[in-house]
Amino acid sequence: MVFVRLLFLAFLIIPQPNQVRAADDPLSEEQLKGKAAQELAAAKKLIKKEKYYRAIYFLKEALEADAKNADIHNNLGFAYRKMEKFDKSMDAYNKALQIDPNHKGALDYQGELFLTLKKPAEAQKNWKKLQELCPRGCPDLTKLQKAITSYNSGTYGGY
Fold first, then answer.
1. Structure confidence at residue 1 (pLDDT)
2. pLDDT interval class at 37 (50, 70, 90)
3. Where is pLDDT greater, at 14 or 74?
4. What domain range is 65 assigned to?
5. Which of 23, 67, 123, 157 has its CA 20 to 30 Å from the CA of residue 94?
6. Do 122 and 157 sit in the same domain of this protein?
7. What domain count does the chain have?
8. Same domain, 69 and 114
9. Looking at the domain assignment, is residue 156 inside a domain?
10. 8 A C-beta contact, residue 102 and residue 86
11. DSSP state of 90
């Protein structure tokens, strides 16, 4: 499976006969975004399998191609959080929210990290921001609300 993925990535990056480019020519914006999307997709599959360390490799590769992608930073924060690398997780969530202050996933996941770090007031701020962004509700708002309720009842498991 990894071989097939690498072969596909090589196909995207290696120029076709009519597209010969010098070794020092950078990839086009479109090629970089495509590479980042593929790396992110691979990382998400690994995250679903709870293979966070391997996912981080692909997420870092994705960031090399598209450092201003809030989704990549958000997933990196999630993987670090699941590995209990909370400082790196917070840095990644902060970067995602710097790029997109209304990123619902980052607000949710950062809120959950705040609960893990025993900072419920900070989690509550994220929940309020999600309420503004989702006046009719949304999965991220619901998820963070459940985590806060669980935290307040003493049953929150963390990370």
1. 57
2. very high
3. 74
4. 29-85
5. 157
6. yes
7. 2
8. no
9. yes
10. no
11. H
In tens, the pLDDT along 69-85 reads 999 999 999 999 999 99
- List pLDDT tens digits, range 78-119: 999 999 999 999 999 999 999 999 999 999 999 999 999 999
Residue 75: give its domain's CATH number: 1.25.40
- Give me the amino acid identity at 107: L
Residue 85 near residue 114, CB atoms below 8 Å: no
Give helix 29-48 / helix 2-13 axis angle, nearest 10°: 170
Nearest partner of 86 among 64, 108, 60, 114, judged by Cα: 114
Residue 30 has pLDDT above 60, yes or no: yes
Q: How far apart are CA 112 and CA 125, in angstroms?
A: 12
- Sign of the alpha-carbon dihedral angle for 129, 145, 87, 117: positive
Whether residue 158 contacts residue 116, with contact meaning beta carbons closer than 8 Å, is answered with: yes
Q: Which of 82, 14, 96, 19 minimizes the C-alpha distance to 54? A: 82
